[in-house]
Amino acid sequence: MSALKSITGATLAKDIRLEWRSRDAINSMLFFSLLVVVIFSFSFDPNAEESREIAAGLIWVAFLFAAVVALNQTWARELRNQVLDAYRVSPAPASSLFLAKALGNFSLVSLLEAVMAPLFMIFYNLRALGPAWQLIPVAVLGTWALVVNGTFFAAMSLRTRSREIMLPLLLFPISIPAVQSMVEATRVLLAGDGSARFWLVLLLTYDVVFTTACLALFETVLQAE
Amino acid sequence: MKKALLVFAVPAAVLTALLLAYAFYQAMWVAPMERTMGEVQRIFYYHVPSAWTAFLLFFVNLVASVTYLIRRNTRADAVALVSAEVGVVFCTVVLVTGPIWARPVWGIWWTWDIRLTTTLVLWLIYVSYLMLRRFSDGAQTPKLAAVLAIFGALDVPLVYFSIWFFRTQHPQPVIGGGGSIDPRMLHVLLINWLAFSCLALLVGWSRYRLEIMQRDLEEELALESLLGDGGLPPASAGASSRTGSLLNRTSSRMGPG
């Protein structure tokens, strides 16, 4: 257990340090989601009363697209200098490597959301009419739902031709229930009609099921050759 | 191979064709007319059997994928591929016949109802499964595809519950759903299901044979190219000279740069 923790910690620290020095992923994600938000503002009138109804959908779709930008770069960096081969032959458990990558992506996407959500609120003139604090568990569980499967499928699409396009093709169909839960929970909380409890429970179930599946099957994907 | 084709495949194909014709006759002329919906209701004899067959094939795909991951049996992988392909075809039939029926009866082509949406998501998942098989090359394809099949199976109940919150418009399932159906209609439905299952089995079986033959051929070709075109040269000399020329080529390419 302590080995798992220390290997995960070391890999995560390495990834964060690399990202901090280059800031490639975070810069491209931030600018990309800013572009998406601006384009949405031209496509759907942000001042209309209905925009409150669709804002929840827009914000999560923007984050989903931006997350794909970051997720695609997760493993690409390990291909240089055969780092991934080194991981493969090392005795370290594959699940700790996966956990480190997923946590790294989680912190990146969370940072993006922390910056972009206030901007979205300003552009669309939004105000939560429901219990606003519940938006935090929705964001945490929703982000993890996107990131855990995204990290896994990014490792899978590494082995395919045209891997950049393969990731969304694999990730989006599986993510449909998670995206629906996030959007519905956010919509309920923004509009203040009803409770978001059902969607939170569903998101939690999704997270638990797929985190378990990813940790159990990552060894197979890593060793697939 | 030739003999198996004559003994098994041709009679099976003839029988399936006869059964399909009989089922068509039953559905179009023998089954009683539905009182409120009229003739358009007869599409039900194609819609429902296709759905059952598709779900059965997706289940076969899951079982074959799990078997492959445990046993690493290449035949199981071929079964998984074939069942996904044929399943997607039948699922497409379901998604096409549904709206044709819904337009006159409900007045709309499509609604985001629980069964429609779940079937659509299932179709999307299996199309992405086939895309993965197509885009990934080499020996790792079966493993990656099997893993994706398990993810898809885990996703289906979650999709179901996420849409369960909306009002459901689809008619109750005829078997075990509390709906009532004329026994003569049920009879026709089951005959059609049998015919469709036979068709799926036949198509799946010939596709499976094709896949196995293709893999054998590929293996043979790979072996041939590995051994060289001109028969079998003395193993050690041939190998070392080829490695040598390869090394020379690499070094000459790297030289000027």
SS-based class of chain A = mainly alpha
Average pLDDT, all residues of chain A: 88
Helix content of chain A: over 70%
* Beta-strand percent range of chain A: under 5%
The total tally of domains of chain B equals: 1
- Compute the separation of the termini of chain A in Å: 28 Å
* Helical content band of chain B: over 70%
Summarize the main sheet of chain B.
none
Got a strand count of chain A? 0
What is the total tally of β strands of chain B? 0
Strand share of the residues of chain B? under 5%
| Regions with little confidence, pLDDT below 50 for 5+ residues of chain A | none
* Rounded Rg of chain A: 18 Å
Return the string of H and E elements of chain A: HHHHHHHHH
Topology (elements, then pairings):
The complex is a heterodimer of chains A (225) and B (257).
Chain A: H1 2-22, H2 24-43, H3 51-72, H4 76-79, H5 83-89, H6 94-123, H7 135-157, H8 163-191, H9 197-223
Helix pairs in contact in A: 1-6, 2-3, 2-6, 3-6, 3-7, 3-8, 6-7, 6-9, 7-8, 7-9, 8-9
Chain B: H1 2-30, H2 44-71, H3 74-106, H4 114-135, H5 141-164, H6 183-227, H7 235-254
